[in-house]
Design goal:
Elements (H helix, E strand, L loop, with lengths): L4 E9 L3 H11 L3 E2 L4 H5 L2 H19 L3 H25 L6 H9 L3 E8 L9 E6 L2 E8 L14 E2 L7 H51 L2 E3 L4 E9 L3 H11 L2 E5 L15 H4 L2 H7 L10 H16 L2 H15 L12 H18 L1 E2 L2 E2 L23 E2 L2 E2 H29 L5 H23 L3 H21 L7 H24 L2 H25 L5 H42 L14
Antiparallel strand pairs: 1-8, 1-9, 2-8, 3-5, 3-6, 4-5, 7-8, 10-11, 12-13
Helix pairs in contact: 1-7, 3-6, 4-6, 10-12, 10-17, 10-18, 11-12, 13-14, 13-16, 13-17, 13-18, 14-15, 17-18
């Protein structure tokens, strides 16, 4: 839910303004209304502070100044180049570069070549080695002798340099010492300076916040008075008022208006808070919207679990989430997400059990699994896991989609009515009555066997009332003929859109089915390797295939189980709920 806010307007004498801002920052409960970014960007002082902050962030992210890092990287590159040179000359065996130089001074010329084994001819030179399908040879000519021209042949000249393997090994040893020294200088700098950089970054951020507040202050009465606005959560209202009364500051406290860009502060229980980062990925709600997280959380958990579709994988996610939460497993991209991973694991374990799958094993049909534990599985729905001609999981996915979209339409109607009043949302209520009312009537008719005549009159009533809202009163005060045309266009968009939206939920069934079949395939491959007469070797092969297969399947399943439920939420649900997500999060002015 969204915490209610109070809007404050402060009017302070200019001599007391610095002290007032200090008190306001120390209290840390007011989100100051700052001017547009375009106006603030013109200020040179703020731009200099922002640039200094970026430099500190860059330094902190790298862990050392560019100069020290460059020195280390240069040495590391020299080591890599020297090792590559060693690999290139290793094929020539052990030789003394000084002796080659002496031979050249005595009038002998040595030229080094390589070519494909099949192309080598003995008259070209002395073959030294064969490696990787190539022959490496030396062409030796004495003083006054003319070397055979190999430019038109398959032979390629090779440059071996002036250093032999011994000299290069010595050079690498020396460079490794330089690398150790460079890393030592970086570590020494980090110990001496990183804490100070963090402190400077904190001070820079505070300076930027202070500067933004100063620049957002309106100066009245020729600069004698300073006026500034901000928002405070109602649970901090008494603390702020007490501070203002002590400081004898003039202020006005009002409820936020619709045109105010009121910041939002979410207040949810521990479970819903786990899913707030997903809401933030799309955009925070406006102050006059409903917080979508209490609905997003349970449905995303359900969607994720259906896509995973395996209780064994769910148990693995619980273990991984627990290790991340306890900081036993350090994965930077999942830092701080151990709680939500455990929650998704619990949901996947429960839904996977109901689907009857454990690490790709169909436990519903397994003879060794207790029959009593199978009674609540989805396969017991319908006839042998089918409703009519369709798989029960496909039907379940579509039913969940219908419920999800109907819930979105209810929330949209309530939100629009709260914001604009009932008269302006007659069409929204008309569609809600037609779709949700029609579905509810059909369910009641099938459940309680309502008479056909009763159902007919109920549907006529629902259709008539809905038609008035959709075609006649969709825009109060407008020409009825225009309203009818707008209603027809809205009907076309609604019918085609809703059908596509509901069918999108089949992906929940498809992903769960694909993951289960792939897990089963890896089990079958492992069993084939194990054979009917297993031994140590076949058991090792079985374990390697099954472990690798299920780890790979889990990773792919988690990727799909994250992306597709997120799409169902961001596209199908948010569209039908009328969610905008253009709000800004509460960020109080504080130390």
């Amino acid at each position: 839910m969204i915490t209610p806010m109070k809007k404050y307007t402060f009017l302070v004498f200019h001599r007391d303004y610095e002290g007032f801002l200090t008190q306001l920052r120390d209290l840390g409960v007011v989100d100051i209304t700052t001017k547009a970014a375009g106006l603030l960007e013109e200020n040179e002082q703020l731009q200099a502070a922002l640039q200094h902050e970026d430099e500190l962030r860059h330094l902190l992210a790298q862990g050392a100044p560019d100069q020290l890092l460059q020195e280390r990287d240069n040495v590391a590159q020299r080591i890599a180049d020297t090792k590559q040179t060693m690999q290139q000359i290793a094929v020539w065996g052990s030789f003394d570069a000084k002796r080659i130089q002496l031979l050249q001074e005595a009038g002998y010329t040595l030229r080094f070549f390589s070519c494909a084994d099949s192309a080598f001819q003995e008259e070209w030179g002395i073959a030294v080695a064969k490696e990787g399908g190539r022959t490496y040879f030396v062409q030796v000519t004495g003083a006054g002798e003319e070397a055979q021209d190999l430019t038109e042949t398959a032979a390629m000249p090779v440059e071996i340099g002036e250093k032999d393997a011994t000299l290069l090994a010595t050079e690498i040893e020396h460079l490794n010492g330089l690398l150790v020294a460079a890393n030592a200088r970086i570590e020494a700098w980090q110990k001496a300076n990183l804490d100070d950089v963090r402190k400077q970054l904190t001070e820079a951020r505070q300076h930027i916040d202070w500067t933004r507040v100063q620049l957002s202050t309106d100066r009245l009465a020729e600069g004698a008075l300073c006026l500034i606005e901000g928002f405070c959560p109602i649970d901090k209202e008494s603390d702020l008022n007490a501070m203002l009364d002590r400081a004898q500051v003039y202020y006005e406290e009002t409820d936020p208006a619709a045109e105010d860009n009121t910041p939002i502060k979410l207040k949810n229980n521990w479970f819903v808070r786990l899913f707030e980062p997903l809401t933030g990925m799309y955009g925070w709600p406006n102050y006059n919207e409903f917080d979508p997280t209490p609905i997003l959380g349970p449905f995303f958990l359900l969607f994720f679990a259906l896509c995973i579709g395996d209780c064994g994988y769910g148990l693995m996610l619980i273990l991984i989430g627990y290790l991340i939460h306890k900081d036993k497993l350090k994965i930077e991209m999942f830092s701080g997400l151990g709680g939500i991973i455990m929650a998704l694991g619990v949901g996947s374990t429960i839904i996977g059990y109901l689907m009857g799958t454990f690490f790709g094993i169909d436990i519903y049909r397994a003879a060794w699994f207790p029959d009593g534990a199978k009674t609540i599985m989805f396969n017991n729905l319908g006839t042998d896991g089918k409703i009519g001609e369709y798989d029960v999981m496909m039907v379940l996915a579509l039913v969940i989609g219908v419920v999800h979209i109907c819930l979105a339409m209810v929330i949209k109607a309530l939100a629009y009515t709260r914001r604009n009043g009932f008269r302006a949302t007659a069409a929204t209520w008309g569609w809600l009555l037609l779709i949700v009312g029609g579905i509810a009537t059909a369910i009641l008719a099938m459940t309680f066997s309502l008479p056909t005549e009763t159902v007919k009159w109920i549907m006529i009533g629902i259709g008539g009332i809905s038609a008035l809202g959709i075609f006649i009163f969709n825009t109060p005060g407008r020409n009825p003929l225009i309203n009818i045309g707008a209603g027809l266009w809205d009907t076309y968009g609604m019918v085609t859109g809703l059908l596509g939206d509901v069918l999108s939920y089949i992906r929940l069934y498809a992903l769960g089915l694909a993951g289960g079949m792939l897990g089963m395939a890896f089990n079958q491959l492992g069993t084939m390797v194990l054979s009917d007469t297993p031994n140590v070797g076949t058991w090792i092969g079985f374990l390697l295939i099954v472990t690798f297969g299920h780890v790979l399947n889990l990773l792919m399943a988690c990727l799909g189980a994250f992306v597709h439920p997120l799409r169902l939420t961001f596209v199908e649900y948010f569209k039908n709920a009328g969610y905008e997500g253009s709000g800004k999060i509460y960020a109080p002015f504080k130390k």
